[in-house]
Amino acid sequence: MKNYRDSDYALNKYSAGIVYRFNDGIAEVTLDGYLADNPNKTESDFIAIKRVSDDIYLEQVRNENAQTRENAPFNELDETILCCLSSPEDMFIGEIEANEEAKRYEQQVELAHLILSKLTAVQRRRYLMYHVDGLTAREIAEAERVALPSVVECLQAVDKKIKKILTNT
């Protein structure tokens, strides 16, 4: 699976502009550059395009990860498990357990989407930077050029919101 931090999605999402990656380098369209090249456009037009590009890159990452999972070869552990299934009953039980695991995974994904949809854009961005990118609150504050207590309070509010959502589901 591709490292999230190296993805075009992460690069675009945490950049102020719209980022394009080419074989020979990276180009970024900034708000000022966009407005200079398109005098009849507004900042909200730029933000809308940025959101679309984020969505496109996110879909690309999801498709790459899905493709990776689909093409993943059996590893030695999988072969060992298959060899140990001696009867059709054991194989059937194994299939049921795999289906249950897939259902639990789908439920977790749905819950993650629900949680992320309940967060504000700032909360979602900081939560992902903290938990997915592994940045500290201090690093997030420096990257966003805001006070450290602001980031800490935001992350605490997110934790509180997530606990509330989990208790209500």
Mean pLDDT rating: 77
Regions with pLDDT < 50 over 5+ consecutive residues? 72-77
Number of beta-strand segments: 2
The dominant shape is extended
* Cα radius of gyration in angstroms: 21 Å
Provide the helix percentage. Answer: over 70%
Question: N-to-C SSE series?
Answer: HEEHHHHHHH
Discrete helix count: 8
| Class per helix and strand makeup | mainly alpha
Strand order of the largest sheet: 1-2
First-to-last CA distance: 30 Å
What percentage of amino acids are in beta strands?
5-15%
Largest sheet: 2 strands, antiparallel
Q: Can you summarize this structure?
A:
This protein is mainly α and 169 residues long. It has helices at residues 8-13, 31-37, 43-71, 76-84, 88-118, 121-131, 137-144, 148-168, and strands at 18-22, 25-29.
